[in-house]
């Protein structure tokens, strides 16, 4: 099959902090698996991270770090296009156009907006936080994307993207491909180690909440040893809310080792929570070793990353501008005519 015939995949991570094992298990790991079968675009969505306050120097550093972590996780820049969202201005332009076609009600009902807005002073919630899904829809629709590999928390944003694409296609004629969500079989929602009822998130600051991809082995192990469990003894996969901590540890273990639930439960039969935490901590440490080694190599050869991002931006611009031209034409924006 030639490159042009492959279906497209698009996904992104915000450079809003240190990447967690939730980001890896829910997103990055799936991306690696898809890069042969699809034409992939993996974006560092820096404009999205502006929806909550960011320190400029930190944002600059994290943008490069996230791109390097894509490569360190196994994404091959020779196969997939890796780029920074703000390098392709079509994203912002389509976001404006689509925001004009989005009923406010669709945005107010987004749970991510409600969650993040409730964590800030009412008056200081930026308009960007409300418009976040419109920018995300633009990211996806510009590439005529078929599949979007993300964690469970992005379901609602994907539904919104499809609704918006359908609305546009209905009003102006077939323009956008309707994207499907691609969820991981295991680990679509990794929970915080300090609070197994809240999603593990890179912008949560509480100590012991998340394991970061660049945490040193002793830190990883310590965080797992301190993970919140319960006062019982059973080590089983379960939906019971009071056993969410144990279930989360088992889920991480399953995602990392690829073993069946049955085999894992059998392995831990008769063992205690201390053993569970130790075993999971060691498995995650092993998982991170090669990733961290590759990351540090990349950090030492700075020029390579710049070159990958420049190439990525060029390729992404090509595809995005084709869709954007169609959109501009369909909605009646006048093109430039030069003699
Ligand atoms: P923030 O805290 O800044 O909102 P985040 O940690 O939720 O960030 P995002 O950049 O919003 O991360 O998400 C990047 C990708 O990682 C998305 O596909 C998202 O679904 C996935 N993801 C994030 N957290 C988890 C998690 N705890 N479990 C599984 N997937 C996750
Ligand atoms: N909203 C996503 C990040 C994101 C994204 C995208 C994911 C922005 N644009 C396009 C997939 C496709 C999040 O994970 N919070």
A few lines on this structure:
The chain is mostly helical and 339 residues long. It has helices spanning 21-34, 46-49, 56-72, 90-99, 104-108, 111-118, 127-142, 155-172, 217-225, 244-257, 261-268, 273-300, 302-331; strands spanning 8-13, 39-44, 81-84, 147-149, 180-182. The chain has 2 domains: 8-183 and 302-331, Rossmann fold, CATH 3.40.50; 217-296, Orthogonal Bundle (Tyrosyl-Transfer RNA Synthetase), CATH 1.10.240.10.
CATH topology of the largest domain: Rossmann fold
The main sheet comes to:
3 strands, parallel
Poorly predicted ranges (pLDDT <50, ≥5 residues)? none
The value of Rg in angstroms is: 21 Å
Keywords:
Rossmann fold; globular; binds adenosine-5'-triphosphate; binds L-tryptophanamide; single chain; two-stranded parallel sheet; about 350 residues; 3-stranded parallel sheet; 5 strands; 13 helices; Tyrosyl-Transfer RNA Synthetase; mainly alpha
